[in-house]
Design brief:
The protein is of the alpha+beta class. It has 18 helices and 20 strands. It folds into 2 domains: 271 residues, Periplasmic binding protein-like II (D-Maltodextrin-Binding Protein, domain 2, 3-Layer(aba) Sandwich), CATH 3.40.190.10; 222 residues, Dipeptide-binding Protein, Domain 3 (Dipeptide-binding Protein, domain 3), CATH 3.10.105.10.
């Protein structure tokens, strides 16, 4: 295929490099990066000479790496990007995203979405990895399980548009009353709680995946815990999973579209959060690509003249504040003090220094569409001007209301990944210098960070969020009171009301106005401190083509990747 089939993933053009130079020139600290970029732009060459063993063109096998061990692969409970990425390769829902982020048929060969409900007709050749057909009943069971309060799914809210979903999740009705039924083995009927404008996009999310009841029950609570604890109906199946070390995916010969799957095996040969270690694996030819390169790794890539790529991931990074009882961050004046010294430009351009990052001004990323154009151009977020004097006045008011002369140390919870470590250390020193605050950094691996966020064991926490489906609501409802991903436990009746409007209205003008009001509330109530919108820098063996890297679906998506002899 031609390079145009892989948008946003070409090596930088000279124009792109020039733009990055202009951006980086905003800070003297980026001067080393500028020199590296200038030297590199003149001569873009292929990957390192030894970077060949990770790609076997004849065997059609590929070796890559991931940063975190997936906490679990139970689609009814999965919440993290790593689990969602793997689920997207091994289990298929009614619809899915292709490598260019277009919604395409999955198990459903056709569908009809109406104001009051939807019907999906399943293809006859959809099979589980044990050869049994995928049936409409498998979707009914999967959805009922996800919304059942006994499952404790943090994504149960995504099923609330289905009739009785919220009532079931709150314990008022049994799961059997969820508004979904199997008319027959190949016809799935859905009844909506209210008219909904985006249901076809919702069913591509992981919580809407099918789960076969007999197999689920046979696992006795271990569903999704290991390779043998899953059934597969997607392009690949997991052949082996050595926890903390490697995962091997092989082509699923039962997959209905198996002829379109070019890779025979996808080996996740390494699981490590160390970006430099992953780059060394790439240079040694042991992995075919490396994503999420931090600033310091980018400099080394430019020095050895490897081709550097980027894509717009669409995730928003922020500092969330804990609103639980007994936390100082529940005080509005303290939150305002933090907001008035929140310098996103310094963080992005002088501290993180990663060219693909941009300053965040809101919860909503720049690519979100409004009624006629970009949402943030139609509805600019309320402007917050840096003001140290006003921040210190707000801090004094906070101390007075809290009845203290000095605030106790505030705990900042973050991942132990390079960008989060740098961000944390910067905040610790910056808030000490500007506001005299003592910040205790609590760095955790991915699994423990999630557990501590869910338990509320923090005052501040670095938090990233990306879209689960192609609608602004995927961001707008993050801080709704019923959303278990609202890990700061913010409760706001005004915000909840606007989320309900956006959920239930079919009128674009009304929905966009609701999103604008949500944006205003989040900033004026200081529910979060925006940090940056993340783009991703990566390197990739030039023989690897067709990898999907977008803001939707599994990232990266190797389901339709292929290998060539071109270098």
């Amino acid at each position: 295929m031609a390079d145009r089939d892989e948008p946003n993933r070409d090596p930088f053009s000279r124009a792109a490099v020039k733009q990055l130079l202009t951006l980086a020139a905003l800070c003297a600290a980026g001067f080393v990066v500028l020199l590296a970029l200038l030297g590199w732009a003149a001569s873009v060459t292929g990957g390192g000479a030894s970077a060949r063993r990770a790609v076997d063109v004849e065997a059609r096998t590929l070796t890559t790496s991931i940063r975190n061990e997936p906490p679990n692969l139970d689609s009814t409970r999965a919440t993290d990007q790593q689990s969602i990425m793997l689920l997207g390769h091994v289990i298929e829902g009614l619809l899915r995203y292709d490598r260019n982020a277009n919604l395409v048929p999955g198990v459903a060969e056709r569908w009809d979405v109406r104001p009051t409900g939807a019907t999906f007709w399943l293809r006859a050749d959809a099979r589980w990895s044990d050869g049994q057909p995928v049936k409409a009943q498998d979707f009914v069971f999967g959805w009922r399980t996800a919304v059942d309060p006994a499952t404790a799914s943090q994504y149960a809210f995504i099923l609330f548009p289905v009739k009785n979903g919220e009532a079931i999740n709150s314990g008022k009705l049994p799961p059997e009353q969820l508004g979904v039924r199997a008319v027959d083995d190949r016809t799935l009927e859905v009844e909506f709680e209210n008219p909904i404008a985006y249901f076809d996009k919702l069913v591509a999310a992981q919580t809407y995946l099918p789960v076969r009841e007999d197999f689920y029950r046979s696992r006795e609570g271990r569903y999704g815990a290991d390779a043998g604890d899953l059934l597969y109906n997607g392009p690949f199946r997991i052949a082996s999973w050595v926890h903390g070390a490697n995962i091997k995916l092989v082509k699923n010969e039962q997959y209905w579209n198996r002829d379109a799957v070019q890779l025979n095996a996808l080996e996740i040969g390494y699981i490590t959060r160390d970006a430099q270690a992953r780059m060394n694996l790439y240079r040694d030819g042991r992995v075919a690509d490396v994503d999420y390169l931090p600033g310091e790794a980018i400099e080394s890539v430019l020095k050895d003249r490897s081709p550097l790529h980027r894509y717009a991931e669409g995730s928003m990074w922020m500092v969330i504040l804990n609103f639980r009882s007994g936390r100082a961050t529940g005080n509005l004046h303290l939150r305002r003090a933090l907001q008035l010294v929140n310098d996103q430009s310094e963080l992005v351009y002088r501290v993180l220094k990663t060219p693909s990052y941009s300053v965040a001004e809101s919860l909503f990323p720049s690519y979100i569409k409004g009624e006629h154009g970009p949402f943030r151009l139609e509805h600019p977020p309320p402007r917050v001007t840096l003001d140290l004097t006003a921040a210190r006045e707000e801090l004094a008011l906070a101390k007075r209301e809290l009845g203290v002369t000095e605030l106790p140390p505030l705990t900042l919870l973050a991942d132990d990944l390079p960008a989060a470590v740098t961000h944390s250390q910067y905040l610790q020193e910056y808030l000490r210098r500007t506001l005299g605050l003592t910040i205790k950094i609590d760095l955790q691996d991915f699994r423990n960070r999630l557990a501590k966020q869910n338990a509320g064991e923090f005052d501040l926490s670095i938090y990233g969020w990306s879209a689960d489906y192609d609608d602004p609501l995927s961001f707008a409802d993050l801080f709704a009171s019923w959303n278990l991903n609202n890990r700061g436990a913010y409760r706001g009746a005004a915000l909840d009301a606007q989320v309900r409007i956006a959920q239930q209205s079919l009128e674009p003008r009304i929905r966009i106005a609701a999103f604008a009001e949500i944006q205003r509330i989040l900033i004026e109530d200081v529910v979060l401190l925006p940090a940056y919108e993340r783009g991703v820098m990566y390197v990739q063996d030039p023989r690897l083509k067709g990898v999907g890297r977008n803001s939707l679906g599994p990232v990266p998506d190797y389901t339709m990747a292929y290998l060539t002899t071109d270098r």
